[in-house]
Prior knowledge:
Elements: H1 48-75
Amino acid sequence: xxxxxxxxxxVPGLEPGGGVRPGDTPPDTPQTSxxxxxxxxxxxxxxxxxxxxxxxxxxxxxxxxxxxxxxxVLQF
Length: 76
């Protein structure tokens, strides 16, 4: 069975002992870990539709609680 590793004697650029000459290796790849565009400014306040939705939800829960309590009280 043949080995998949190349023969070191036939690989170009290798020095005796298996090292490579300076300049024979490709340069390091550039880092791309930064942002390419600036982040949009965030708002520091809660949106009006969110406030309206919370108020509507609280009112809806209150109506259902009042209806449930009224139903229970009127049955006795």
